């Protein structure tokens, strides 16, 4: 029947003649949500809630145990007309009330059914625990009497005076903090250090217990004002295996005033902020010591964790409930999800008359926004938690992380997918549009698969490196002397150009020159004589005659040789006083201008001449093991064909091209330059015991990249010694393959 | 204080609701098990066991009658005390087989014994028509009777229940068992007596109705304990004295597919009058307004889902007309609902197709059987809407007191088994809903029925002409013909055409089963033409007249494809029984309901390609058109299955959520 809400139901006969009524213990609270009246039914015994809209309550309210359901239905039809509940709706409503144990019928209760339902509920709870290993709750005590006794004192925190006091404390705390901002920052470094962890844990527990009692007292306090507000369960919750206290203040849901509900939701944070403020005052006013450390920790936890977790409405903590109350949208998260489904059903699948979970127009935007944001955030936080677990858990407990991942995978991925497929396949709602629904789903899934699983996406990896000139000559002083004049550092030179002139160490350079001159003259003269004698000897064939003279000649030759050597040495000394460029390039000697007049020792390094011409530069990039592995996989491809871009660190533009010239086969551990080390801002972690910062903590692969010499006919602007980032464009790969690789590497690394 | 039979107390103590439907993974496992169990070689096993039973023949055939009786007595005790072994069962079957031979002169063949064994094992047995299902059932029924917990043999109509009880009665009585049949006329004491017999023959309707009446009698008693208390407190005034049924232990269901599947979700309703003059008037007004509305302007028809949708114009039009009326018409939702109903009655429910007018009353024609259903009413005011349209007297909708579908009822038995000519198509459903496997028992003699190729015509007129041509051809030879039609309307149409040709023929669409069965039984005589709606005379053998076998046997002409292949097969099974020759041919047209509803687009496409034309009927059967019909039928079967499953689920939901309303009824 193409009727939205058919009036009659064929099962009506089963309820029509009954005279059920609400259990006498059920309490009813009126609430307004966005101008609509709702009635919250609460069974204090079981702490079960049921929200009824006005017409629903109109019906249920008329059930007094004397009138039959059929009579009441007729009355409702007369009074409410079209908006009266239909027979089907009445049956569903009564069924729900009955299964929530809120309804009492005139027929003896079906004890078997009661037990079955109880068993089902327990089963559901156990299943809930198992699928939610990361958030286990263990109820321990009933704090109601305790809260009742003390609510008179502590409850007054949540009053007008309390609020004024609260603001006063907040301002005071803020005042002291503002005065100590620099210390605040400096101390934050130590917060997560091992030595601080016990303090952190203690502070954490103190703060959280106060937080929970805040909820409890607030709930109790407003409960005393408006009825209800019982708090019967307090216990320990294992949040990611971290024990935390919790309290069940859900009876606050029945409060009529939304501000009361908001305050109960925010009570924990209100109390925590008080602690934070007090701790801030203490911290600012005591000297260093244990008190200060604890105060700091308290301050940290009570403010940072509160604001990050409790106040975050995307998680199901206090912030969520506060937001839901402020917006007057009960069951916000569930309905957001339903609303998104509704949109899909209505606009994509054209389901006829899908049930719209939005009661008022204002809710819609909230639903859309929250539905999308919270889903993404949940996914994100799950991944973060799992990473955290696999990172921090000791080796022997790793399996917990794996189990948690598997269970949350099932609970968050497999179950919804299975349910969705089942819904697609069997839902009666989709009977007519199943083709369309399945097709659009398949289309979406296929396009997602295409995008992440098939379509190639650029796959980039980065490595840091230093620019080094290919040709480089270090210039050493070749003799002792005093620096006379020099070429300033940075001057381009060609081979043979004078870089530096020095003066010999002797005090009088002229005397020395004269001495050389004299020596020279002597040498020249003796050489001339020697030569003549030598010639004469040579001409005499009679060696015997010459025999006598021979020894003389020989000794004189020796003498001349020694003299020549002396001259040569001095000449060399003089030549060596002038240092010349060994190659074409640029003269680099940062300290050269401080050398003037200074004494140079022979063998001292003065500077270097680097061939900085762009076609003679090389980038020595340091690739992590992971990147190295990729290159290893690609070894069959032509490495130098891999496109890459070189950028100067900290300057994204311009980018230079280049090609891989060489990949050093084995892993290295000495960095090409300390500039790449972690200690001085590089990306490679160096060994702590290495002062020079050259020894990498983990082996790496060195990749030599030859930059492209010219860009647009202009030489590139790379300079030796610069730190650069090389980005390799690996062969395009589907995203899923890239993610898989990262995941594998990550897992392997964490092992 | 009256005594109450212990069986009644047992009934009160019986767990209700039937086996719970498995959920989630359990359901998947169950379906898988259902698929796997099909692979079991059950038929071979039962045939082997039947061989053993036949082996005892020599031993028992020698015994004197007194000795047989003594043996029967021994087995009676043995089974009642539960001291039987597996071998005893086979011997007991052999004994019953011999007793049947002595008492009624029928000796079960091997296949019949195999069928009987399968029935006893809780299966649905597929046996071809005429293979002696009735005789097969005596063996498991006797043994179940011996067990002393009651055994219901369910038939599809009163006539069969009475006939079978009478024909097979001597066997049971010889075995020391009480056997009785229940029909519509039975009084409560008779019923109580019958149910307390060892073996009860009754129809599915009677047994379900008695169950419901018992539940009503029990009123607010929810079980044994409250009934005992009530009996003590109130004595004879407590409802317990009016209870007629015993606990539901074992049922052998004849035509199991029809009862459990085709009629499975048809609810049996016990209702009472609830006069409501205002509502009656509203129905009349609704019909008047609906008559003024124009199709495609004010409302649109969706054939696939058989529904009417009002357009915006229609709603505005209706709002204008209903404004001055008041009462029910005051609310927009209610008045639109009324109008849609009136329009549905106008457009979807056609005289002589879905209903006939008898004695100024709308009488429903059963979709499956083509039979008139004077006791049945459409629900939710549809019946009134149709009455208003026909301007006959409108009886206000009755108040339902109790209601139960056969599906739900038979699930409450401890054990059920069944027999039918066609089951294998529904084996999945039998397993899922009733956990009964399907066992196919081969025919005693091989079947030599000739399945002639289906003829497909573009239009209905051509189809009927084609049928008449074929009848003429076969009739000239003297071959007996059984024409199966889908509806009373169709059978009348064929009858009219046959009258024109002055062919003598019989038309069956009456409600008197006995007569119907006789006519059908005669359909195998030479030169006979019988026009019958599909299920008419089901369960009756058609024996061939002398010399007919040489003419090719009975020629069954199916003039439609049904929503389920099983029903097609049932009709076909009327011929070629027990090794007789026979012929079957199906005649369909593109304008038939099946393609129009379940292959809408293809049918439209083909109709465009073959526009209506005068002249000789065109047979357009080819692989494509044939596939279209097969596909449409598959789709229809699947839709029906899903609907039945949904009903089952809803029932379970109601049981769970309406626990406060007491026992289901």
Report on this structure.
By secondary structure, chain A is of the alpha+beta class. Chain A folds into 5 domains: 13-109, Outer Surface Protein A, domain 3 (Alpha-Beta Complex); 133-326, no CATH class; 332-431, no CATH class; 475-604, no CATH class; 611-733, Beta Barrel (Elongation Factor Tu (Ef-tu), domain 3), CATH 2.40.30. Chain A contains 20 helices and 26 strands. In chain A, strands 9, 18, 19, 20, 21, 22, 23 and 26 form an 8-stranded antiparallel sheet that branches. Chain B is of the alpha/beta class and 665 residues long. Chain B starts with 5 loop residues before the first helix and ends in an 8-residue tail after the last helix. The relative contact order of chain B is 0.10. The interface between A and B is large, with 38 and 40 residues.
What would you say about this model in short?
The complex is a heterodimer of chains A (751) and B (665). Chain A has 751 residues and is an alpha+beta fold.
List the topology elements:
The complex is a heterodimer of chains A (751) and B (665).
Chain A: H1 13-16, E1 21-22, E2 27-33, E3 36-43, E4 48-53, H2 54-62, H3 69-80, H4 87-99, E5 103-104, H5 111-131, E6 135-141, H6 144-154, H7 160-179, H8 181-188, H9 197-226, E7 233-239, E8 242-248, H10 258-285, H11 290-310, H12 318-326, H13 332-348, H14 361-392, H15 398-426, H16 434-454, E9 456-469, E10 472-476, E11 481-486, E12 492-493, E13 498-503, H17 509-539, H18 543-576, E14 578-580, E15 585-588, E16 599-600, E17 605-610, E18 617-623, H19 625-633, E19 644-648, E20 651-656, E21 658-663, E22 668-670, E23 695-707, E24 710-711, E25 714-715, E26 723-734, H20 735-750
Chain B: H1 6-13, H2 24-37, H3 42-55, H4 57-61, H5 65-80, H6 86-104, H7 110-120, E1 124-126, H8 133-147, E2 151-155, H9 158-174, E3 179-181, H10 188-196, E4 199-203, H11 204-218, H12 224-234, E5 250-254, H13 256-262, E6 267-272, H14 277-292, E7 299-302, E8 307-310, H15 312-322, H16 332-348, E9 355-358, E10 361-365, E11 372-373, H17 382-390, E12 399-405, H18 406-410, E13 415-420, H19 427-434, E14 438-440, E15 448-451, E16 455-457, H20 460-477, E17 481-485, H21 488-500, E18 506-508, H22 513-522, E19 529-533, E20 554-558, H23 565-572, E21 581-589, H24 593-598, H25 600-609, H26 623-657
Parallel strand pairs in B: 1-13, 1-14, 2-4, 2-5, 3-4, 5-13, 15-21, 16-21, 17-19, 17-20, 18-19, 20-21
Antiparallel strand pairs in B: 6-12, 7-8, 9-10, 10-11
Helix pairs in contact in B: 3-6, 3-7, 5-6, 5-8, 6-8, 6-9, 7-8, 8-9, 14-16, 14-17, 15-16, 16-17
């Amino acid at each position: 029947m193409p009727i939205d809400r058919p009036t009659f139901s064929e099962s009506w006969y089963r309820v029509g003649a009954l005279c059920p009524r609400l259990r006498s213990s059920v309490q009813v609270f009126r609430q307004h949500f966005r101008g609509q009246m709702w009635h919250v039914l609460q069974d204090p015994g079981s702490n079960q809630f049921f929200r009824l809209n006005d017409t629903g309550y109109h019906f249920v309210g008329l059930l007094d145990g004397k009138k039959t359901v059929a009579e009441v239905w007729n009355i409702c039809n007369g009074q409410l007309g079209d908006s009266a509940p239909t027979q089907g709706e009445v049956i569903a409503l009564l069924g729900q009330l009955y299964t929530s144990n809120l309804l009492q019928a005139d027929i003896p209760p079906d004890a078997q059914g009661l037990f079955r339902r109880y068993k089902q509920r327990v089963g559901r709870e156990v299943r809930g625990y198992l699928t939610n290993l990361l958030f286990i709750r263990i109820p321990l005590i009933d704090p109601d009497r305790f809260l009742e006794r003390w609510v008179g004192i502590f409850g007054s925190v949540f009053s007008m005076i309390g609020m004024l006091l609260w603001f006063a404390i907040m301002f005071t705390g803020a005042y002291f903090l503002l005065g100590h901002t620099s210390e605040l920052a400096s101390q934050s470094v130590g917060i997560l250090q091992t030595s601080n962890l016990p303090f952190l844990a203690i502070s954490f527990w103190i703060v959280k217990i106060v937080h929970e009692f805040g909820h409890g007292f607030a709930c109790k306090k407003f409960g005393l004002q408006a009825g209800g507000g019982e708090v019967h369960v307090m216990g320990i919750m294992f949040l990611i295996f971290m024990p935390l206290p919790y309290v069940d203040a859900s009876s606050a849901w029945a409060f009529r005033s939304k501000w009361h509900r908001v305050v109960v939701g925010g009570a924990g944070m209100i109390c925590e902020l008080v602690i934070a403020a007090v701790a801030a005052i203490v911290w600012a006013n005591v000297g260093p010591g244990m008190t200060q450390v604890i105060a700091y920790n308290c301050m940290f936890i009570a403010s940072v964790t509160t604001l990050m977790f409790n106040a975050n409405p995307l998680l199901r903590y206090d912030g969520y409930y506060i937001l839901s109350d402020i917006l007057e949208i009960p069951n916000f998260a569930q309905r957001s999800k339903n609303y998104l489904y509704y949109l899909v059903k209505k606009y994509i699948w054209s389901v006829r008359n899908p049930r719209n979970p939005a009661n008022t127009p204002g809710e819609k935007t909230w639903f859309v926004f929250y539905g999308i944001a919270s889903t993404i955030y949940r996914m994100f936080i799950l991944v973060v938690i799992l990473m955290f677990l696999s990172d921090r858990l000791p080796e022997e407990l790793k399996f917990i992380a794996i189990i948690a991942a598997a269970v949350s995978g099932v609970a968050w991925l497999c179950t919804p997918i299975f349910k969705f497929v089942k819904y697609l396949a069997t839902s009666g709602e989709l009977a007519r549009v199943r083709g369309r629904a399945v097709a659009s789903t398949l289309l979406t899934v296929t396009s997602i698969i295409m995008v992440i699983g098939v379509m190639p996406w650029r796959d980039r990896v980065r490595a840091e490196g230093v620019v080094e000139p290919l040709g480089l000559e270090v210039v050493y002083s070749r003799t002792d002397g005093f620096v006379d004049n020099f070429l300033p550092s940075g001057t381009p030179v060609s081979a043979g150009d004078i870089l530096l002139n020095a003066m010999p160490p002797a005090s009088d350079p002229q005397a020395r020159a004269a001495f050389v001159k004299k020596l020279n003259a002597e040498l020249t003269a003796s050489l001339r004589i020697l030569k003549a004698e030598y010639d004469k000897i040579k001409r005499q064939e009679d060696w015997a005659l010459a025999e006598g003279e021979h020894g003389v000649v020989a000794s004189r030759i020796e003498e001349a040789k020694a003299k020549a050597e002396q001259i040569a040495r001095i000449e060399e000394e003089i030549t060596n006083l002038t240092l010349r460029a060994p190659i074409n390039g640029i003269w680099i000697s940062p300290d050269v201008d401080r050398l003037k007049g200074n004494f140079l020792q022979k063998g001292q390094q003065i500077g270097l001449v680097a061939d900085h011409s762009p076609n003679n530069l090389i980038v020595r990039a340091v690739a992590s093991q992971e990147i190295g592995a990729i290159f290893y996989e690609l070894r069959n491809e032509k490495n130098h064909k891999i496109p890459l871009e070189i950028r100067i660190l900290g300057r994204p533009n311009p980018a230079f091209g280049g090609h891989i010239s060489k990949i050093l086969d084995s892993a290295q551990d000495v960095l090409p330059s300390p500039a790449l080390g972690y200690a001085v801002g590089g990306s490679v972690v160096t060994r702590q015991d290495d002062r020079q910062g050259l020894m990498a903590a983990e082996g790496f692969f060195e990749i030599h990249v030859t930059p492209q010499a010219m860009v647009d006919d202009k030489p590139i602007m790379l300079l030796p010694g610069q730190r650069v980032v090389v980005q390799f464009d690996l062969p395009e790969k589907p995203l899923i393959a890239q993610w898989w690789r990262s995941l594998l590497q990550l897992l392997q690394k964490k092992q | 204080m009256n005594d109450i039979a212990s069986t009644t107390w047992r009934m009160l103590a019986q767990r209700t609701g039937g086996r719970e439907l498995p959920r989630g993974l359990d359901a998947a496992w169950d379906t898988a098990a259902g698929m796997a169990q099909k692979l079991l070689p059950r038929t071979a096993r039962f045939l082997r066991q039947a061989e053993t039973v036949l082996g005892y023949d020599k031993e028992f055939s020698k015994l004197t009658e007194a000795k047989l009786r003594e043996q029967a007595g021994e087995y009676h005790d043995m089974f009642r005390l539960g001291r039987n072994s597996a071998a005893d069962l086979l011997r007991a079957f052999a004994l019953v087989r011999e007793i049947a031979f002595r008492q009624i002169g029928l000796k079960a063949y091997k296949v019949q014994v195999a069928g009987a064994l399968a029935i006893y094992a809780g299966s649905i047995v597929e046996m071809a028509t005429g293979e002696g299902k009735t005789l097969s059932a005596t063996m498991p029924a006797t043994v179940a009777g011996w067990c002393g917990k009651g055994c219901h043999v369910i038939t599809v109509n009163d006539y069969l229940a009475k006939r079978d009880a009478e024909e097979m009665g001597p066997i049971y009585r010889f075995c020391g068992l009480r056997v009785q049949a229940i029909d519509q006329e039975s009084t409560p004491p008779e019923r109580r007596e019958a149910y307390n017999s060892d073996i009860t023959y009754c129809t599915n309707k009677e047994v379900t109705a008695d169950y419901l009446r018992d539940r009503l009698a029990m009123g607010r008693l929810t079980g044994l304990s409250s009934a005992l208390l009530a009996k003590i407190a109130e004595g004879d005034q407590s409802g317990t004295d009016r209870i007629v049924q015993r606990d539901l232990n074992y049922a052998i269901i004849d035509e199991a597919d029809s009862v459990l599947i085709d009629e499975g979700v048809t609810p049996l309703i016990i209702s009472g009058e609830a006069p409501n003059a205002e509502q009656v008037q509203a129905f009349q007004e609704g019909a008047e307004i609906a008559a003024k509305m124009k199709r495609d302007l004010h409302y649109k028809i969706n054939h696939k889902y058989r529904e009417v949708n009002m357009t915006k114009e229609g709603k505005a039009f209706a709002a204008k007309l209903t404004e001055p009326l008041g009462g029910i018409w005051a609310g927009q939702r209610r008045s639109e609902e009324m109008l849609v109903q009136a329009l549905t009655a106008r457009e979807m429910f056609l005289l002589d197709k879905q209903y006939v007018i008898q004695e100024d009353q709308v009488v429903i024609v059963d979709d499956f059987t083509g039979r008139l259903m004077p006791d049945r009413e459409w629900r939710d005011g549809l019946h009134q809407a149709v009455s208003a349209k026909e301007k006959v007297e409108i009886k206000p909708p009755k108040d339902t007191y109790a209601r139960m579908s056969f599906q739900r009822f038979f699930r409450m038995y401890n054990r059920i088994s069944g027999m039918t000519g066609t089951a294998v198509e529904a084996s999945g459903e039998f397993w899922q809903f009733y956990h009964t496997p399907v066992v196919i028992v081969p025919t005693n003699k091989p079947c030599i029925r000739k399945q002639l190729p289906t003829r497909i015509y573009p239009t209905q007129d051509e189809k009927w002409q084609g049928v008449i041509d074929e009848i003429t051809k076969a009739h000239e030879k003297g071959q007996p013909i059984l024409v199966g039609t889908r509806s009373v309307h169709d059978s009348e149409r064929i009858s009219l055409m046959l009258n024109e040709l002055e062919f003598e023929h019989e038309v069956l669409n009456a409600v008197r089963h006995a007569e119907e069965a006789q006519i059908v039984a005669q359909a195998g005589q030479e030169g006979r033409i019988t026009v019958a709606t599909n299920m008419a005379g089901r369960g009756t053998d058609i024996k061939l007249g002398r010399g007919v076998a040489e003419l090719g046997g009975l020629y069954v002409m199916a003039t439609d494809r049904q929503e389920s292949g099983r029903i097609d097969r049932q009709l076909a099974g009327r011929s070629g029984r027990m090794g007789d020759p026979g012929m079957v041919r199906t005649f369909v047209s593109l304008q038939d309901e099946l393609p129009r509803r379940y292959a809408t687009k293809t049918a439209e496409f083909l109709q465009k390609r073959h526009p209506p034309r005068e002249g000789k009927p065109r047979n357009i059967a080819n692989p494509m058109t044939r596939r279209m019909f097969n596909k449409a039928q598959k789709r229809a079967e699947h839709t029906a299955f899903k609907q039945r499953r949904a009903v089952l689920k809803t029932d379970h939901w109601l049981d769970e959520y309406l626990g406060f309303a007491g026992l289901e009824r």
